[in-house]
Amino acid sequence: MTQPTPYPQHTALSLAASGVPVLPLRRGKVPFGNCTTCANNACGGRPNMRVPGPCRCPGVCHAWAAATTEPAVIVSPTWAAAWRRAVCVGYHPGGADLTVVDLDDADAIAWARTALPATRTVPTTRGQHWIYRGAMTSRNAVRSGVDIKSTMAYARYLGPGTGAMADLPGAVRALAVKEPSPVRLATVAVPVGAGGGECPHRRPAYLERGIAMAVQRITGAGNAIHATVYGAFLAVLSTHGRCGCLTDAHVARLFTAAQSKGETARHCTDAWTNARTTLGL
User: Which residue from 187, 168, 171, 279 is spatially nearest to 233, judged by alpha carbons?
Assistant: First the structure.
């Protein structure tokens, strides 16, 4: 006798057929843990994660990165065992070019109704999911009771919802933009030399070009941010740290660039101090 397809797996197959990557969620609405080979990401991560590595694990590993639209994977013996223990279906919104604004309570819903354009709405246990067409960076706690789930995140599938799906608006994208910490320079020592604030070996445009290049180097970094910031500070100080031409305004530009990449004011201060120490300033 043919065994009936478990309900979560049936739902998953239907979603996958429409191009939505799915994964099983266990009790607590969380993904299954990594297998022993992949524990602590020892395998290096799945190829579709922003973690390099050769992992080809057939299991339900790596949370959102396990999400798939492949029917053969969804019905495989390994996944079938997970579906039998699953309590619901999860999906990777960003993988389907979607963004979920997770509104956790009545206050968050009231805010969304005045701040965001109407779109498809799905009721949740305590609030609502507002689903938009388009992917973006995920970020939790963008305001009280509001999370954004899109790329590198998973959401619980709670049904098709109601209403026409709208394109992702700028108002939602703006919520995920992390404001840099205010630049603090009180503890930063600006070298003072004999030049009286003017670079003695080149005209002022040389200093301006050096600061601009350092800022561009920092803001253009895709990884190794700490090392890039330190290297940029070191380059500026090695050229202008002894002539007295640097001012608080110049240092503020460098710090602002570093903080726009996620560095804290403390990291900036430490990198500046370490660069001065390295150069004997």
Answer: 279
pLDDT given for residue 14 in this prediction: 95
Stated as kind and residue range, the H or E segment containing 110 is helix 106-115
Instruction: Give strand pairing partners of 103.
Output: 128, 146
Beta-strand runs (E) in the chain: 22-26, 30-31, 88-91, 98-103, 120-123, 128-133, 139-143, 146-149, 155-156, 166-167
| Dihedrals phi, psi of 259, to nearest 5 degrees | -70, -25
Q: At 155, give phi and psi (nearest 5°).
A: -135, 155
pLDDT digits (tens, 9 = 90+) for 71-104: 999 999 999 999 999 999 999 999 999 999 999 9
The three-state DSSP-derived secondary structure of 23-76 is EEEECCCEECCCCCCCHHHCCCCCCCCCCCCCCCCCCCCCHHHHCECCHHHHCC
In angstroms, the CA 250 to CA 169 distance is 36
pTM of the model: 0.63
Report the distance separating Cα 128 and Cα 56, nearest Å: 35
How does strand 128-133 pair with strand 166-167?
A: parallel
Distant-in-sequence, close-in-space partners of 195: CB < 8 Å, separation ≥ 6: 243, 244, 245
Sign of the C-alpha dihedral computed for residues 243, 218, 188 and 269 taken in this order: negative
Comparing 26-30, 173-177, 239-243, the range with the smallest average pLDDT is 239-243
What is the average pLDDT value for the chain, to the nearest integer? 83
Q: So what's the pLDDT on residue 193?
A: 52
How remote is the C-alpha of 258 from its chain's centroid? Answer: 17
The sign of the dihedral angle between the CA atoms of 149, 150, 154, 160 is: positive
